[in-house]
Amino acid sequence: MEHKEIVAEIKDHFYWLHRHPELSGEEFGTTEYLKNVLASHSVLVYPLPLSTGLVAHIGQGNPVIAFRCDIDALPMQEESGLDYSSEYPGRMHACGHDFHAAALLGIALALKNDNSLPGTVKLIFQPAEETLGGARQILETGILDDVQAIFGLHCCAAYPNGTIISRPGFMNGAVDEFRIDFLGRGAHACRPHIAADPVIMIGNFIQAAQTIVSRNVNPFHSLLVGISHIEAGTAKNIIPEKGFVEGTIRSLYPEDRKLAKERLGSLACSIAESFGGGAVVHITDGSPATNNTPEWVALAEQVARKLQMPFVTAPDSLSGEDFAFYQQNIPGAFIQIGTGIGPMMHNPAFRADPDALELAVQFGVQLVQEALEKLKYVESC
Ligand code: NI
Q1: Which end of the chain has fewer CB atoms surrounding its CB within 10 Å, N or C?
Q2: In the chain, what are the domains?
């Protein structure tokens, strides 16, 4: 297939995917569509026990690398005004995962033409990134056990088309969420002496929780403990029986992550107890921090420069990205590509410029070829 034909075809796939967004874990129509496109081009898909998402492959033998895109959408109403807007009320591809899927299809079609690929590339169309569970599902199949390097591509609305953005080391934060229930004893507001007031417990807990970042962690490390949701009580003259707080922990270093969870729990329990109540602490284990291997970021930068695409060092961010699960076992790099400056991801007016698809494919194809060549060279030494 000619390069031009590939670009024209994947633009159509992008429009279809954008019109048919599916939520995390429910990407049934998307998966079927992608499988059909790949089958029509004789790109092989591994038979894996995945209800949604898939892994295709091109080339053969060692070395083996992987390229990951995600395919799920968000539960929000689209307000982009695009003529290919979502056909499903309350669902939207507002994080550009439709762009990623179309770009990876393009990379697959372009590499099909390349009989000289020096190894194997596994193309991951990952489900459920937004709920941070899809990467684990792919890893559990064992299909990545022989992968020596992995790359992930994400669009970015903060840069013009084709800008490549990455950095060595931490690029996104670990994401954990918590809910803490404070259990007291209710009473009429005029009889506080017979109550155990969860509002007082929560007030003190909020203050104390700020000291985790300010007093417990190395001040040169980034850590965030945010409480964003509080509920307690029903009326002005009733001391409630219980209340709760919810929030998020964002961290880079595993030891800080562990410490923040432990301190939140012990502060909640000791404060609740000191006011005559108790606390029930729930903390979910989200994704770890993305941690890019310097040599693979260097290769991405080299490829960008070769293609005359500007390379920008990624700014500090504690946003979450479940690509980090792959990086716990496999070296690699998470890379963003500019898709036109506009409303950011997760905004109802977000749009990824379809014209950036061609650049994403060029970059991805070159990166796959050069990464395999680099590994081949190391193996032969
Ligand atoms: Ni995303």
Answers
A1: C
A2: 3-171+289-380 (3.40.630.10), 174-285 (3.30.70.360)
